[in-house]
Amino acid sequence: MGISINNASKKFGGKPVLDGLSLELPQNGTVCFFGPSGCGKTTLLRCIAGLEKLDAGTVSGVKGQKLSFLFQEDRLLPWCTAQENVAAVLACGKKERCAKAGQWLGAVGLADSLALYPRQMSGGMRQRAAAARALAYGGDVFFLDEPFQKLDGENKRKLMELFRRRTEGKLTLLVTHDMDEALRLAGTVYVLSGPPLRIAGAKKCGI
Amino acid sequence: MTISIIKSKTGPRAARKIFSAVLWLALWQLLCTAVKQEILVVSPARVFLRLCILVQDAAFWLTVSGTLERVALGFAAGAAIGALLSALTAVSGLLYDIFHPIVEIIKATPVASFIILLLVWTGAENVPAITSALIVIPVVWENVSEGIRKTDAGLLEMARVFRFGRVKAILKIYVPCTMPYFTAACASGLGFAWKAGVAAEVLANLPLSIGGQIYDAKIYLDTVNLFAWTAVVVIASVALETALSKAASHIRKKRGGESYGNQYK
Questions:
Q1: Does the ipTM exceed 0.85?
Q2: Do A59 and A173 contact (CB within 8 A), yes or no?
Q3: Are B161 and A73 within 8 A, CB to CB?
Q4: Residue B151: which domain range?
Q5: Are residues B11 and B109 in the same domain?
């Protein structure tokens, strides 16, 4: 069973961002929410993940699932190194945590930057470290909120491939306003407009 | 060009500091010369000479260490209780309602009232440490509470998503986020602790204490001693504050030198 969104409504400062939205999401595969900035994509993602409380309506099928989130901002702990940031989300022993963190940081191309603090890294490096954290944590549902916006072409492709492999057989919800990203990663692309958020169209990509 | 003009106007920091010290010493000397009564204003040279004599006496070091011990104990207890209270009042509205009025009362009560009450309630030996602690508690409580309130909401959300749990969230997010507030509170609280501790020693007339020496100076109208012991308090307070601020800065640099703030709110 996938995730069901029923009559979801959410207002910010009296302005409706979600207004009675209903949507069925599959149990696995990558679903992309594509639309212009400010249409409410991130709000939708946050409401599904339970980070925002709906004013009305329900989201079912998320409770009890392990969620991994790649935020628009890196949200790295400024007082921890890249390795400590990734290790912080892992639940195993200290040695194993460090080793796994090192492996994932290596996978995103930050093998030489394990001991760097966020302020010593560029925006792209921080975004990759945050991606390594989400990848290392794993989970049943991956929420990717414009995950590749600060990356150059090479790193973007590398990260897309990593996420594609890591999320196989799982559900990934991707928010983007880059059609290339949407078509490369997603099995289903919802074209959105708003606010309030409306589904203007849906496209099956067959991935 | 503008920068070089500003630099040449202000000069290096050390030189400016020396200039400032010399200026105030000169003003002090001028005042002393104008008043012409040593019982009212003592010259800086006389105070310096008295200090030189005092430091050669073993009793001086016993006196200073005695006061230092009492103030340090009171300060440490006050800082720990203040931090604990801020954590408790942050998690529970009921505890906030219980402790907030008490802390407000402590803040508003004159130090002299505390000292006299404590002299009645406890032995004179305990009064300086308890007074110092009582002065530090509201400062630390208010600052750390502010730090907890301003803890980065984005990082807390990240911790929620990645299931940090309470202990990990406290250690990885709350403690580092509130640390600058705690160290700032400690820096200002230390000065207050010194003042309050020495004031308590004066009123308690404790033997082998700086306050006791100040009390004796008052009784015997020994203004030179009064100035000299006051200088000791100032020097010790500044030295401790500098040491504390250096230690905090060292820890901050070791942890990436990050300025903590709410980046994602």
A1: yes
A2: no
A3: no
A4: 42-254
A5: no
